[in-house]
Protein 1
Amino acid sequence: MALRLVFVVGMAGSGKSCLTGAFSEWLRQQEQDVVTVNLDPGALDLPYEPDVDVRSYVTVVDVMERYGLGPNGAMIAAADMIATYVKELEVELEALEPDLAIVDTPGQMEVFAFRPSGLFIVENLTRWPKALVYLFDACFSREPGNFVANIFLASAVYHRFFVPQAHVLTKCDLVEREDVKKMVGWSSRPKELLEALEDSLTGDRRLIARDLVRAVCRAGASFPLIPVSSTTYEGFLNLNMVLERLVAAGDRYTF
Amino acid sequence: MALRLVFVVGMAGSGKSCLTGAFSEWLRQQEQDVVTVNLDPGALDLPYEPDVDVRSYVTVVDVMERYGLGPNGAMIAAADMIATYVKELEVELEALEPDLAIVDTPGQMEVFAFRPSGLFIVENLTRWPKALVYLFDACFSREPGNFVANIFLASAVYHRFFVPQAHVLTKCDLVEREDVKKMVGWSSRPKELLEALEDSLTGDRRLIARDLVRAVCRAGASFPLIPVSSTTYEGFLNLNMVLERLVAAGDRYTF
């Protein structure tokens, strides 16, 4: 067995569960031996059947009832409690002997990415190679200011986990082709993002945004976005090539 | 009436509600005419009695029951629904005729800061001067990598709202004095943060962190942190001086 793990991370509503479901389905069609892992104790309906599911151990609704917590407190408590089941999850996962696991993370990114338990899970859920996919929601990111906010969030996530990170533009079927092109352009040619910021902002706001984008570019932080759609499977071939490079030295997972 | 609004924003568990309660109490002791506004539809127990409360209009638990949603979906739906009550909230708020309103925001920062409704509320909840307080949790931020992640998040928030922003280090009573000094040093003297990163990281991770911090510093993004404690009221005098500058041209709110 040579397992690889791909964690799917992004803001609430950015399409993590849909991507997990659709991309794993697509990989199965390519005869890749892939399983899905759900780490979201607050998920109610998932658009896929997880092979390993943290909700076997803890759910937000249970935590609300058992400890008399509100949804906020229960979500944090449940996300933290996942960490105590990392050994059980690992045993379940390795028993399936897959070559690749797509790992869906909690709906609210911050309870996973910016609390100790999330880092603990990424570091301790098996010792196999790992990568992370950070999702840019195409509907949200087409506004240049939001695109920049997403760059900062992606940087924060990268700083937190420090595993190889791919950047994906989701929901491309929901925006115009022109908008997809525009955002992919922004991600690979910072000058175009700067121009868009110039056009959309005025005064101080423009100056500050420009300085910050320039700074991030100078630091060599690069976010080439892979446009995908979990509805049409568009872009999954490209996404897969990038992930194969990140976790399997460019090879297929299953031969 | 000359109302000013201060929005309290930070990651889940960073101390938003405690700061809202303690700081408003302290301001009352200084004979300032202050009210509190709760914008978190998911709050169960608040450490203060909000004068204006979004839960009069919508709660996460109601949304879960009424629409059969899980906690994730209900939290997003409820946060979005707040926006439809902005007029009602404004009428309630202005009827109180305060000179200052401290506005507590939803527990999960991303459902407020990075969804359309949050921006809509900050822009449309009255036409009075506004500022934002971004919270760095001292317990989380004392690790240099987490401190950097928080800088990126604070930048993302700034880019999203573009209102004057103060940066506060919360829970200073829970960490050693040495750690407080260290973090305040990192925030005002980037060189010290770079040194801490050098010590705590190795290899590639060190190089990349260094480049990014340098870039943010070069861009003039400055995050002088105001250390506070909502338990001991330490630092509230300083926080208030900064907020008076941001929203009241350096004057007191109430004479």
Protein 2
Amino acid sequence: MARVRVHNFFVSLDGYSAGETITLDQPIGGAERLFARFDGRFIHGLDVMDEPITLDRALTSTWGQGIGVEIMGRGKFGPQTGEWTDEDWRGWWGDEPPFRTPVVVLTHHQRAPIHFDNGTSFHFLDATPEDALAYAQGLADGRDVRIGGGPSTVRQFLAADLIDFMHLVTVPITLGAGVSLWDGQAEVQDRFTIESATSASGVIHHFWNRTIRD
Amino acid sequence: MARVRVHNFFVSLDGYSAGETITLDQPIGGAERLFARFDGRFIHGLDVMDEPITLDRALTSTWGQGIGVEIMGRGKFGPQTGEWTDEDWRGWWGDEPPFRTPVVVLTHHQRAPIHFDNGTSFHFLDATPEDALAYAQGLADGRDVRIGGGPSTVRQFLAADLIDFMHLVTVPITLGAGVSLWDGQAEVQDRFTIESATSASGVIHHFWNRTIRD
């Protein structure tokens, strides 16, 4: 059965995963340091680069395995808010978005889909988490769904108990302020079986698997 | 550049990775307990089974990423020794060998290749590690080469300094006797940068990356 998964989700020691305001210069809203150790090229597998295969890299590389669609919040797609005044904006990633699958962008403002040659397409949707998930599964060809962030988006799916698996990464820095996955999520851990492992780089990887219910 | 990788290579606390004699009933030569925690279905990725995604599973699933060919010793292919008196033997795996790529089987005894519908093929070769690697790379379509074991085979490639990466797994059991990767390999660790991580299941994962030389 297809699952709903979160991968490579970075969290600071004080619990933040993004800054408050996304701008062109600050795509993580000022929390860019969370991604300082992250090499985005590693998501596509162990063979794409002649760099050491560390624990961090091996785990990063599971991001795309068996994934047929991503759901992301509008802030991950770009810095615009409100009506789409700039339809030339096609995301942060240029002509080669790394997703290589359909991507559902949650927004209250409709817009026509965007298609790229590498298999990536963006589909704009105004929907609840449940309805967005059903829509995304229709695009996933039976494969798993990744919830791509940012933290507010993951939090909504978590609150709706729609997440089967989360790979969280505690990064040993403090941010002081920002957006947290955990706001209003007291006791969320009770629904999961949790394992953690420390890597030589100083980050801690957490594997949250939703406990199967009767 | 394509690399030479070892994955999911199990080692007991006393250093053994297989028993001495392969038989039909004992494909690991009596060291089958080393594989008790190993679910072979996990090698194909995170999506193939609705089981928790643990650290062990995530790392197991990197086995096939970017691999274009495997090289294995004859004992991994089957229990026969000497001349191929039973050419009906097509490996331990039935009609669906898990490899899904060409596989080079090292043997002093020639035999015609075997092809399966799922992309697996077995090619029998009598060659030094260097020559076997060159032959395998010709079948790999530019992808990485996996050295699949058993321990004597990995040891030969290690002694020839042909291994770029090893994912070793220390299993907390003792075997008392068997075949070891380490025989005659004193100081081999000096050629590698080594990281290790303990999983909740009690195994220890080791990542050996060959240190790049000037």
